[in-house]
Amino acid sequence: MKVFIIIWFGQLISLIGSGLTSFALGIWVYQRTGSVTDFALISLFTFLPSILLLPIAGTFIDRWNRRIALLVSDCGAGIGTLAVALLLFAGQLQVWQIYIAVATSSLFSAFHWPAYHAAIAQLVPKQHLSRASGMVQFAQATSQLVAPVLAGLLVSKIQIQGVILIDFVTFIFAFVTLLFVRIPKPETIPENEDKKKSLLQETLYGWTYISTRPGLFGLMIFYSFSNFTLGIVEVLLTPLVLSFTSSTVLGTILSIGGSGMLLGSVVMSVWSGLKRRIYCILGFTLLQGLLLCIGGLRPSAPLIAAAAFVYLFSLPFILASSQAIWFTKVAPDVQGRVFAVQRTIGLSSLPFAYIIAGPLADRIFEPLLAVNGPLAPSIGLTIGVGQGRGIGLVFIVMGILNMLAVAIAYLYPPLRLVENELPDAITQIVNIANEHEK
């Protein structure tokens, strides 16, 4: 647990630095282009390369020392950040160069996520896995809370170049913390060891492991759909808020949302969630769907801030409960491969969301709720018309889809009963070890 806390703290500092850069670059691109699509492409290039590489990266994570994998991924991400800072100092930074830089960092991050989460399952006792997942969410929440406000202050003082250099320093800090820890090699289950053959076969084994377990497969698909709605909201929140108020208010709203996630992470770290984790996932996802509908109703900063607070307060309970199920049900020696496939499929909907969010808002929903748009005499009477109201309607549609997804998931028995029907992989390893001793 001590080793986990050291790694976690280094990643916390690095996440705050990355949040500074993400907020600053997003505002920089949107203010210069005025295009939701150009803004959304940053998110696309942040995730797509990582998602494409993840299945192969997961296989190498099971072969390599996981500490080395974390060191290499932090190094690569830091280089991408430094390149953006140097271009800014030279006055040569273009939007397409930002896409290349974030795509390069994304390639390295493909190794980071499965290595980090596989290490958690190795280092943390089973009874504390939900708390450890809550701590991971706490780190992300802290970044969302601190980064927007801090970035807004720092940009005015040291310019965007200085903000990105701070991000580079945080990468170095995370790198140094990893130099002083040791992550043990996981125990190998014989039946999984037999599966280790060629690189392609090992990569495909992650898919086979999940697809032959309907409960895990259903959880993965549910996660993927939830990420689709989250991706749409993530891209369109900035244009929605900026359609009726300033970037300063936007930063405040993001920080309020981050404080909700922070509080939720603290509660999750202490409480560990419901005994039936799947009910925690479905219940809070249903609440999130309702909040998306509320957030799209009016161009009101207090309303959106309140919805963002509760929405992000719910997120740690969903993610930590889901991760705890995966940690418990997947054997440690194949977690790199399995987690990589799970994340690849789970996040594959995000690039699609990032691609369609801009055109969906710019070309379809915004014209529908323009002052004299087709929906102005009907839906427009309820949620208003004009700039940003089409995006509000997108939020409402995403909320309804979220609630429908929860209903379908509950009615699918393998998913609803996943914790009962699948044996704990950690218990399986202990039993095998006892057999060897006998």
Description:
The protein has a single domain, classed as Growth Hormone, Chain: A. The chain is globular, with a radius of gyration of 22 Å. Helix 1 packs antiparallel against helix 4, helix 8 runs antiparallel to helix 15 and helix 13 packs across helix 15. The C terminus is likely disordered. It has 438 residues and is an all-alpha fold. The protein is 83% helix and 0% strand. It contains 18 helices and no strands. The two termini are 29 Å apart. Keywords: Cell membrane, Membrane, Transmembrane, Transmembrane helix, Transport. It comes from Aerosakkonema funiforme FACHB-1375. This is MFS transporter. Pfam families: MFS_1. InterPro entries: MFS, MFS_dom, MFS_trans_sf.
Q: Architecture, CATH level 2?
A: Up-down Bundle
Determine the number of helices (DSSP H or I, runs of at least 4 residues): 18
| Low-pLDDT ranges | 428-438
User: What string gives the helices and strands in order?
Assistant: HHHHHHHHHHHHHHHHHH
CATH H-level homologous superfamily name: MFS general substrate transporter like domains
Count of strand segments: 0
Helix content: over 70%
The main β sheet shows up as: none
Organism: Aerosakkonema funiforme FACHB-1375
Domain Major facilitator superfamily (MFS) profile: 3-417
Membrane topology: Multi-pass membrane protein
GO molecular function, one term: transmembrane transporter activity
